[in-house]
Design a protein that fits this description.
With 189 residues, the chain is of the alpha+beta class. It is 29% helix and 28% strand.
Length: 189
């Protein structure tokens, strides 16, 4: 899967991800992949996607073809993902089933969004959370969260903290590998 992190410190936000793709037990390392990037840009926002490798291509296509998407805040992200859900089902044949007793259809998406407004987590039932300091997603998230929590007050920059998070995922999660990609954004006051 992945290790994806977003960190906010001082006037900077950084989103970072590893570059490994897996298909069951098969690994596709960055050296063998022409598109190992797990973070896509839409206007002034960066979206890091976890889960199925198909999400990356679907979202690259959606972001390229739509000009009406807004990732500027928690409610805007929720409304955007809600508008995209029928498109994911009808145009891209998303299977919205997870558990029989789920209250809503799943988007099957886990993502982090970073922009000048903040860092946000998006989950399969269209839940959107805004984080004050940092967050992580993917199979390496627990390792990344531990590293970032231990180092947040000790390291001076969002980039250094984000690097530590992805590196911890790469050290301990079998579905995470370096190199990583990072994107930095200035924070709006």
């Amino acid at each position: 899967m992945t290790t994806l992190v977003a960190v906010r410190k001082h006037d900077e936000i950084v989103i970072a991800a590893d570059s490994l793709t897996t298909f069951g037990d098969l690994k596709l390392a960055a050296d063998f992949d022409t598109s190992p990037e797990k973070i896509v840009r839409y206007r002034d926002s960066y979206l890091g996607l976890c889960g199925s490798a198909a999400h990356q291509l679907v979202f690259e296509s959606l972001l390229r073809s739509r000009g009406d998407l807004d990732f500027g805040g928690r409610i805007e992200i929720f409304e955007t993902i809600s508008r995209l859900h029928p498109v994911l089902k009808d145009r891209h044949f998303l299977n919205p089933k997870e558990e029989e007793d789920d209250p809503y259809e799943s988007t099957q998406i886990t993502a982090l969004v970073a922009n000048a407004h903040g860092i946000f987590g998006v989950y399969s039932m269209r839940e959107v959370f805004e984080f004050t300091r940092f967050w992580a997603a993917g199979t390496g998230r627990d390792f990344a969260l531990g590293a970032m929590n231990a180092l947040y007050d000790r390291l001076g920059t969002a980039e250094a903290i984000a690097r530590a998070g992805v590196e911890a995922g790469a050290a301990f999660d079998r579905n995470t590998s370096l190199p990583m990609t990072l994107h930095a954004i200035g924070v709006r006051r």
